Each structure stands twice: as C-alpha cells, then as structure tokens.
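subagent[fold] <- orchestrator: predict structure for attached chain, return tokens only, no commentary.
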Amino acid sequence: MDAVLSQKPWEALEHLVNAGDAGQIVIFLDQLSPTETARAISRLDAEQQTRLFGLLTPEDAADLIEDISETQAADLIEELSPQEAAAILEELDSDHVVDLLGEMDDENVTAIIDQMKPEDAEEARQFLEYPADTAGGMMISEVLSYPATLTIRELLDDLQQNRDTYADYHVQYLYVTDEQQCLYGVLRMHDLLFPLRSKKLSEVMIKNPFHVPVAANLEELGNFFAEHDLFGAPVVDAAGRLLGVVLPEAVEEARRKRSVKNYLDLSGIIGGEEFRTMPLLHRSGRRLSWLSLNIVLNIIAASVIAIYQDTLAAAITLAVFLPMVSDMSGCSGNQAVAVSMRELSLGLVRPQELLRVLGKEVSLGAINGLVLGALLGAVALLWKGNPYLGLVVGGALAVNTLVAVSLGGLLPLLLKRLKMDPALVSSPLLTTVTDMCGFFFVLSFASLVLPKLS
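subagent[fold] -> orchestrator:
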C-alpha cells in the first residue's frame, strides 16, 4: 500500500482497480479529499471507471458519488447497468438522487427508476415533477414527523428503536402532523428533554410553525432564510400536507449552480457543464453549435459593410469609429439584458410586459445615447477638425444606443415567451443587431454628407 500511496492519486487508483482489490480501494479513497477523489476518477478511462463502481458495494459507491460533481457522477452512473445504478441511488439522500436523475437522459432515468424499490421509485417520480429551483426540487424527504396525539415517551421510544435508521437523517427539528398529515407544529430537541414524558406532543410543540410552499422559488427561499434563522424549513403542498424539509445549504448550493450555469451560457458553453475528461467529439460538437451560430450572425453584420464599401473607401477615417460605435452600443444593450434577466428571475416583470419595458428603456437610451454620442462626436471633431465627422459618428452612436438598450430590454422577455433560454440567446442576437445597426447608421449617415467628409 505504501508503494501505491507514493504514486499520483489517479495512477494509484488505476493500479488498485486493475488489481481488483475493493477493500484497498475504499481505504485509499478515504485518504483523499473530495477534490483529489474527483480528479483521480476523472483521469481513469471509461472502462476503468465502470470497473471501479463494479468493485464497490452500493454503499461505498454512494459515498464516492457524493465526493464528485453531479455532472460527472451522472455520466458515470449512466455507464452502469440500470440495476447497479438503482442500487447506488437508493443509498443516497432523496435530494441527491433527484439532482443526479435530473442530469441524465430521460431514457436512462426511466430504466433506473424501474429497477428501484417501489417506494423509492414512487418518491423519485414525485420529486422529478418539481422544478429543480423550487422548494419541491430541493427538499429532502428524510424527515421525522409524528401525530399530535403521541406522548413524549412514545416518541423517544421510537427514536431509540429506530436509531440506526434515523442516524443518517438530517434531524434538527421534529414535526407534528394531524390526521391528514398536515403540518401542525414543530418540536425542538429542547422540547423533548424537560417536560413530563406523559405529555402529548400537542401540549409542548410550537404551533403554526414557519413553512414554505412546495412551489416556492429560489429567490423566495433565499428571502425566507434571510428573515428566519432556521436550520431547515418544512415544505408543504397546497393542502398543507408535510412533504419534506429544505435546508439553507441546499438553497445556497442552488444559487451557486444558477450562477455557474448563467456564466457558462453567456460564455457559449451550452448543454450544461463541460469537463475535459468528456469525449472529444462530444465537447467539440457542443462548442461548435454555439460558434457556428456566431459565424452566421457575424456574416450578417459584416454584409452591411460590404454594401457601403464605396462610402468607407471614400472616407477611410470612418473605419476607426465603426468598432467604437458597435462596442459602446453593445455594452449599453448588455446592461439592459442584465436588468431584464434579473427582473425576470425575481418575478418583477413578466414576459408579456413588453410595452412597459420598452417605455422605460427608450427614455434611458435617449439620455445615454445623447451623452455618449456627444462625447464621441467631440473626440472626432478634436481629432480631425471636421464637424460633419463628429455629427456622423456621434449621431450614429446616439441612435444605435437607443436601439441597443430597447432591444436589450425586450429580447429576454421575447425569448422567455418563446420558451427559449434568454441567457443563452440574448447576447449573440444583441451583438449581431447592434453591430449591424451601428455599421448601418455610421455608413448611411456618412453617405448623406460624403462630400463634406472627403
């Protein structure tokens, strides 16, 4: 084992997998940090990864799954047989199971769920019906609830009898329900220690506890935990029935995932996370699907210059200002996109409110366009001493800024109405239009006063 430990983690893991020594594999992985574990597994080829999970027990494989990213874990589980995958997933917490299934293809999800125990399969199907960024999608079902008529003695006896099962639960509070399984109260550990054992739970519980609806979105959950310093919040359906508990750390993790996704989308990494251990052609295809679209859009923008090439040749100075006009307008448009995206996520604006957003952005675009146009026009005048050049580039920037902020404010709403991802499509469309309009305004205005520019 000492010789193995002297190797790089992935080399050591490969050696142990090839030796087929499951016991030593578990001992070795226990000594690695989650980051080192994820890196070591990612360096194995697909055949070795499948063999690794085949050597481990479902319990050990589940522990390993918890140390790596959901995308990586889902890819690995999809390579296993549905029976092996189901056995591993049954060892995980309910929220982790749903997160992993959400990363897989529908066909694989169905095959794996069909191999799970009936009660686990039914729970997984129910959880998958909830959007991932809602309380239903983030909650855990491993919650302890008891009827209000139970006594403290009976509750403590149950905890003792089932201590091995409950040991893996995230228990901070115990919940009290009525005959219809509706949330009735909550018990803190303190509430079980000092009252008489003969007292009923309804006598010592905190009535009408704070709770969140199953459809509560990420922003609502964040606001809830910011206002209430709780270790967890019970989740209820429309009838008030207790479904599970959402933890504040789950909300923070969901926020982090959303930030990562938005960053990847805006960077052109579509289809989820990408790792360099993924198949080469798969990675290439995903990137090309974005880059190919951008080539088409840029060709459209460049065609405007081709139409006005005679004007550009007669006043070559305009070439210096073309990228400035398109870039400044693009920046203004992206600001409007960011505001619309944020308001959509917070529910402050709806996709149907196009006229309201347009009115707000037109007024702002007019002010900013005039200011920016005046600044750029002044620069052109001071540089070349030609007031007509200043009017052309300044006027083009002013008008294009108005177009950019108006379009930037509307695009996310329009794409949302079309059930497309606004974060994925807004930027390339906006960039193309602002470039095309910027070139058009500069060159068309220049054509009107071309003798004055020569």
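orchestrator: received. Logging for downstream: Residues 354-384 form the longest helix (31 residues). The chain has three domains: 2-133, 145-264, 280-453.
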